[in-house]
Design a protein that fits this description.
Layout: H1 3-16, E1 29-40, E2 55-71, E3 78-85, E4 88-95, E5 101-108, H2 136-142, H3 166-174, H4 180-184, H5 188-198, H6 203-206, H7 209-224
Antiparallel strand pairs: 1-2, 1-5, 2-3, 3-4
Length: 234
C-alpha cells in the first residue's frame, strides 16, 4: 500500500466511524440525507466586529430517488441518484464517502440486469418502473439490523462508561442509543448487533459496558430518592 492509498484509507475510516455505508447498487431506491449550509445575513448593525461575517445555519435535506449508476473505487467512488421532480427528471452525483452526507438509507431494492440505467432518462411512468427484488439475498439485506427504537427523554453522557469516547458516543447515537438505561438493558442480540455494526471486536463484553451502565443507573436512581425526614429526638 503506497502513501496515497494509505491516506485514502484513513479518510474512508474516518467517515465510516461516523456513519455506515449500506450495500446498494443500480436499481435500488435510496434516500440520501444531505447537509445543506444556509447563510444567515441577519446581524447586529451596531456590532462592528461582526460586520462582514456571515453566520451559517446547517440543516439536513432528504434526496430520494433511484440509483442509476455507481462508479469509481475507494475514496473516489460515487453514485448517481435520479428522481422526478414536478414532472422533470433530476439527477445528482454523490461521493459515497462525502462528509456532507449524514446517512444513506436503502428504501427499496430493484431487480435489474444492467450496471448503468441511463435508459431511464428516456422513459416515463410505467415504462420507467423497476421490479422489486425478492430473492434470499435481498431479504437478508432488508432484514439487517438498523438500530434501536428511538427512546424518550434527552440524550445522556455515555462517555461516563469506560471505553466509550466522544466519537463512539456519536456512532451509538446514530443507532438511537443515547441513554445509559439502554446499555444497562442490552440483550445478547443487542450486544451482537451493536458489536457487528460498529466493529467493536467484543469491547462491550470485555469492558463490561452493561455492568458499568447498571451501576451508573443505580447511582442515578439513588440520587433521585428524597432523603427521609430525620427521626425526632427522644
Amino acid at each position: 500500500m503506497n502513501i496515497i492509498q494509505q491516506l485514502e484509507r484513513e479518510q474512508m475510516d474516518a467517515i465510516l466511524a461516523k456513519r455506515n455505508v449500506p450495500e446498494f447498487g443500480p436499481g435500488d431506491t435510496v434516500k440520501v440525507m444531505v447537509m445543506v449550509v444556509e447563510a444567515n445575513e441577519k446581524a447586529d448593525p451596531k456590532d462592528k466586529k461582526a460586520k462582514g461575517r456571515v453566520a451559517a445555519a446547517v440543516r439536513f435535506q432528504a434526496y430520494e430517488g433511484v440509483c442509476i449508476a455507481r462508479s469509481g473505487a475507494g475514496l473516489n467512488e460515487n453514485f448517481t441518484v435520479r428522481k422526478i421532480s414536478y414532472g422533470e427528471g433530476v439527477e445528482r452525483v454523490f461521493p459515497v464517502y462525502s462528509p456532507y452526507i449524514s446517512e444513506i438509507e436503502v428504501v427499496r431494492r430493484g431487480k435489474v440486469r444492467r450496471a448503468k440505467l441511463y435508459y431511464l432518462r428516456g422513459r416515463r411512468g410505467k415504462a420507467a418502473r423497476i421490479f422489486e427484488r425478492t430473492d434470499a439475498r435481498a431479504r437478508r439485506l432488508n432484514a439487517a439490523w438498523k438500530g434501536f427504537k428511538k427512546p424518550k427523554g434527552e440524550p445522556e453522557d455515555l462517555t461516563q462508561i469506560k471505553g466509550i469516547n466522544a466519537d463512539l458516543q456519536g456512532r451509538l447515537k446514530q443507532l438511537n442509543c443515547y441513554r445509559i438505561e439502554q446499555i444497562a438493558t442490552f440483550s445478547d442480540d443487542d450486544m451482537a448487533n451493536v458489536d457487528e455494526v460498529l466493529n467493536l471486536n467484543g469491547a462491550i463484553e470485555k469492558q463490561d459496558w452493561i455492568g458499568q451502565a447498571q451501576r451508573l443507573q443505580a447511582e442515578l436512581t439513588a440520587g433521585e430518592v428524597p432523603a427521609e425526614d430525620a427521626a425526632p429526638a427522644a
